[in-house]
């Protein structure tokens, strides 16, 4: 109910902002307001033993051959600071995997953390949580580029038990924060085959 209320308020403000006399905040600024208390702590989602599925990723990433990306739980190394997950993906029929170390940022702050970094693929990537609940996680990807500077793009993950549900509130949050420049990654049949292959090798 709270998520529904937040989304309706953001939608109303976005609609009103189109008029010249409106002084409403931008929808993203409104949603990021600390007074709104939107859930942004990714820890419970990231430490879930449930399999995670990548639903959307930035269109700018030229990975057209990838049909499915999943993440499986590996373990907590340091509570509230460092954890590990395995990422598996299918590329041209070949299953690949990588263990990813996830380091939460600002571990000593008193408010819940909403950012973390990974270095799994020989680059440092920072992720900032836009929205997190028991069903989905929407992340802003912050990667520095020598030419264009700081690039901000988004990824959308869903838990196994919810991946085939509409999850309209998650999709709407993604559109508000990230726009429509995304590619759908999740393919039901491809993911079924990927899970079968991954479990047969464990």
Which features would summarize this protein structure in a list?
202 residues; signal; Putative salivary lipocalin; Lipocalin; single chain; Calycin; 8-stranded antiparallel beta barrel; alpha+beta; 2 domains
Can you put this structure into words, describing what you see?
The chain has helices at residues 2-16, 27-31, 43-46, 168-178, 188-200, and strands spanning 52-58, 66-78, 82-91, 94-104, 115-118, 125-132, 136-145, 149-159, 182-184. The N and C termini lie far apart (40 Å). Strand 2 (66-78) and strand 3 form a beta hairpin. The longest helix has 15 residues, at 2-16. An eight-stranded antiparallel β-barrel has the order 1-2-3-4-5-6-7-8. The relative contact order is 0.19. The chain is α+β, with helices and mostly antiparallel strands. The protein has two domains: 1-38, no CATH class; 39-200, Calycin beta-barrel core domain (Lipocalin, Beta Barrel). The protein has five helices and nine strands.
The biggest sheet, with number of strands, parallel, antiparallel or mixed sense and barrel status, is:
8 strands, antiparallel, barrel
Strand tally is 9
Mean pLDDT: 80
Query: What is the terminal-to-terminal distance?
Result: 40 Å
At CATH level 2, the architecture of the largest domain is Beta Barrel
Give the DSSP E fraction (strand runs of 2 or more residues): 35-45%
Q: How many helices?
A: 5
Determine the structural class based on helices, strands and strand pairing: alpha+beta
* Overall domain count: 2
Helix percentage range: 10-25%
Please state how the strands of the largest beta sheet are arranged side by side.
1-2-3-4-5-6-7-8
In CATH, the homologous superfamily of the largest domain goes by the name: Calycin beta-barrel core domain
CATH class category label of the largest domain? Mainly Beta
Gyration radius over CA: 18 Å
Order of helices and strands: HHHEEEEEEEEHEH
CATH level-3 fold name of the largest domain: Lipocalin
Tell me the quaternary state. Answer: single chain
Described by the principal axes of the CA atoms, the overall outline is globular
Task: Extract low-pLDDT stretches.
Answer: none
């Amino acid at each position: 109910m709270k998520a529904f209320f937040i989304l309706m308020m953001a939608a109303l403000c976005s609609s009103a902002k189109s008029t010249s006399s409106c002084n409403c905040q931008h929808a993203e600024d409104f949603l990021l307001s600390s007074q709104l208390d939107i859930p942004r702590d990714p820890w419970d989602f990231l430490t879930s033993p449930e399999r995670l599925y990548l639903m959307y990723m930035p269109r700018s990433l030229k990975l057209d051959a990838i049909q499915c990306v999943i993440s499986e739980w590996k373990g907590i190394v340091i509570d509230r600071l460092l954890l590990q997950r395995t990422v598996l993906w299918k590329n041209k029929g070949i299953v690949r995997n990588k263990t990813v170390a996830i380091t939460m940022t600002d571990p000593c702050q008193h408010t819940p953390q909403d950012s973390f970094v990974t270095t799994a693929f020989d680059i440092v990537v920072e992720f900032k949580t836009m929205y997190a609940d028991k069903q989905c996680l929407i992340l802003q990807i912050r990667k520095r580029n020598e030419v264009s500077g700081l690039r901000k793009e988004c990824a959308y993950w869903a838990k196994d038990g919810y991946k085939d549900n509409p999850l309209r509130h998650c999709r709407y949050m993604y559109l508000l924060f990230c726009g429509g420049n995304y590619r759908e990654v999740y393919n039901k049949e491809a993911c079924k085959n990927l899970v079968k292959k991954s479990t047969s090798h464990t």
